[in-house]
Amino acid sequence: MDTNNNINNDNHLENPDYISIVLPWDISIDQYNKFVDINQLPAHKYQQNTVAIPNSTKIDFSPLFQKKCFSFNRLHNNPLHKIEKLNRDTHLIETKGTDFLWVKDFASLPGSQTGDFLRQVGQWNIKNKLGIVFSQKSKYRLFPNINNLVYSPDVSFKTHAIYNLDKLRVKKNNITVHPPQYVLEVASYSQKNKLDIKQEKMVDWITAGVESGILYDGCGGKVYLYCRSNMLINQQHPNVQGQLNGINNEIVQLQQRIFNRQQRLLNTIGLLPDDILDLQTQLNQDQQELVPLQWPQFYYQNMNPVPGHPGVSFRTIPLWLNQNPQYHGPNMIIHCIGVTNGLKLNLSTIPMD
């Protein structure tokens, strides 16, 4: 797995925004210095109950814990949960285990990218009515009795059957132990972001039971596809062949309709002006519909196991950022699988500036 963000877009790199995290207890200057040292952070002014950390960066908070936090059954007395609760009105915090947390990046560019992906998944679900689409405000507790991860994916989807496993109280609180079946994450543009957090999270998602997911890294110029290894046959998901056949059939049918309408417009004898206008409108619609079908299409094929995690497979797809580099992503389509089979993500509408 590519754990280094090989940056091609230096102009898009943003300096990490340092944000204040309020602590539920006071810390000593020695604790603060150890915290700064272990996380390789610049030393800000010491305060008894506040620390400054960068966005989208995995931070080890264990140097700041009081001894009583290490009591028996610490997973059920997690100090990170106390920190998250105290700061939830100002920051969206994700946690891993009892030591690590990070704050989600709400910068405008990754936020607008997330918004467009959410729009596409939402429109697909409105048409198919298969389940519920969730924004990044939804929380999932993964491995509650082992590692106790609390993640908030940028976009997630679950079928009605999975959604209805939760009681109304859980739905209202927006946190659940039932993982979604599909997740999509957008990488930060912060200089501190090395993709390690997002890629680590994608492995955690799939290991926890998510069928498939996508990690979009506009800054690094790559998109990563993930899925369970046991869903693949010869490195390819079973949905792929049907998707390939479907695209080819759509192209043939559209090309035939376009040809027929072009021929009819060459001889308009017997057609009323309104008929000619309708025919021209239909022709234009068919031609517009054909364009994205002829773009490069990418599928869950040529997948390889993530090193150290044989149950999770992935592939890396370079983004062709020389296309529409100032405004939007490349002319590429990604075909999703499993419960989201039929969802086609159009990267050309993803904001890049």
TrEMBL record:
This is Putative restriction endonuclease domain-containing protein. InterPro entries: Nuclease_put_TT1808, Restrct_endonuc-II-like, Uma2. Coiled coil: none annotated. It comes from the Eukaryota. It comes from Tieghemostelium lacteum (Slime mold). Transmembrane segments: none annotated. Residues 112-231 form the Putative restriction endonuclease domain. One of its GO terms (biological process) is DNA repair. The lineage of its organism: Eukaryota, Amoebozoa, Evosea, Eumycetozoa, Dictyostelia.
